Amino acid sequence: xxxxxxPTQSADHGTTLRNYTIGFVASLVLTLxxxxxxxxxxxxxxxxxxxxxxxxxxxxxxxxQFVVQLVLFLHLGTETRPRWxxxxxxxxxxxxxxxxxxxxxxMQNLDYNMMSPQExxxxxxxxxxF
Length: 130
Hints:
The chain contains four helices and no strands. The protein has helices at residues 7-43, 51-72, 84-113, 117-126. The protein folds into two domains: 1-75; 80-130. The longest helix has 37 residues, at 7-43. The chain is mainly alpha-helical. The protein is flat and about 80 Å long.
């Protein structure tokens, strides 16, 4: 007795392969576009884009690539209810934010605590009141 693959299995595999291919091409295009924007900005004597427009364009390209990779590679938002992968993803983002903000807070306090008495006096005078 050999088990025949169900038609839904082969269709699902084709859809997954198609999603991976679309995701790869989209990620490649977005990365190359960001690279070309930066190289054009750096190599031109008079850049066509201002620095702030370049930063905004790069941020938009990065967020677009982030969404493409979340949907097409990690398959977030494509599963049926309950959305466990999406819940775990947001929990991971929360934990990473706690780690990053906590680390920055600790480093700021260490910077203050490592000051010499003269630097502490100057800091206190500059940051007086609310």
